[in-house]
Specification:
CATH superfamily of the largest domain: 4'-phosphopantetheinyl transferase domain
CATH topology of the largest domain: Ribosomal Protein L22, Chain A
Number of helices: 8
CATH architecture of the largest domain: Alpha-Beta Complex
Shape: globular
Strand content: 5-15%
Structural class: alpha+beta
Order of helices and strands: HHHEHHHEEEEEHH
Strand order of the largest sheet: 1-6-5
Mean pLDDT: 78
Number of domains: 2
CATH class of the largest domain: Alpha Beta
Distance between the termini: 50 Å
Number of strands: 6
Low-confidence stretches: 74-88, 94-100, 238-253
Helix content: 25-40%
Length: 255
């Protein structure tokens, strides 16, 4: 970024809005610790994108001054984000995941008040850049839209904590959808379309906090994708405890 005072003031206004303080109070030493979360980082990234800027890879800013320093002379036009080919490919339900060992769990909690207020969620840069159209459509149908957005955000973050193959996937490419019974499940936008993920998700909230848990159970997925059941029913008592356990897990995780 050059010594362009207008752009500097735009950055000051951006940070002031996120910190909920007057722009005049944002100085070089103003701490950005309150934005040092996945949600805060996403808001900064999308705000900079609107200004045609992007932080250098791996840059972390503790203060407003360090943010300006990170951008000084290094800011580049926002490019289309490309997936890192070195990351494992995200696992979709159709692909199976029996090759992974062990149960994987991700948990995230978010203060609903930390979700930015908006008069139009369809046009707000954070919501438009972080959620799918179906998620926005679902949330705005409810009186407390931010409560549902917070739940969706928790699900996206819990997915990344559960499964590292999603670490480099943009938030808007993963989404929470609902089946005919209203139960949530996760989807991923791929080159061939939208695919349902094998990960189970549960979302909950109070009036102030939203939370989500994502579980990846390789053993359950492997059992579900096994060959069709035999034509004849085995005599009662033939199936041992080990054989019954996967069915119980499958039912528990809703697979």
């Amino acid at each position: 970024m050059s010594a362009n005072s207008e752009l500097r003031e735009q950055l000051r206004e951006l940070i002031a809005t996120m910190l909920r303080v007057p722009a005049a109070e944002v100085a070089q030493g103003t701490s950005l610790a309150a934005l040092n979360t996945s949600l805060g980082s996403a808001r900064i990234r999308l705000g900079l994108k609107r200004l045609g800027l992007a932080l250098p890879a791996g840059a972390a800013s503790a203060t407003f001054g360090s943010l300006l320093a990170a951008l000084s002379g290094e800011a580049v036009p926002q490019a289309v984000e490309m997936a890192d080919s070195s990351l494992p490919r995200p696992i979709c339900a159709a692909a199976g995941n029996g090759g992974l060992a062990g149960l994987q769990v991700g948990l995230d909690v978010e203060d609903i008040r930390s979700m930015p207020a908006a008069s139009d969620y369809w046009e707000h840069e954070f919501y438009r850049g972080s959620f799918s159209k179906s998620e926005i459509a679902y949330a705005v149908l409810h009186a407390e839209a931010r409560t549902h957005f917070a739940g969706f955000w928790c699900a996206k973050e819990a997915l990344r904590k559960c499964d590292p193959s999603f670490a480099g996937v943009a938030p808007e490419l993963t989404a929470v959808a609902h089946d005919a019974n209203g139960r949530p499940y996760l989807t991923l936008v791929t080159e061939t379309g939208v695919e349902k993920l094998a990960h189970a998700v549960s979302i909950s909230h109070t009036a102030e906090v939203a939370t989500a848990v994502v579980v990846l159970a390789p053993l359950v997925a492997a059992v579900v994708e096994a060959a069709p059941a035999p034509a004849t029913k085995p005599p009662e008592g033939v199936l041992g405890a080990d054989a019954k356990r996967p069915r119980g897990l499958a039912k528990f995780f809703g697979i």
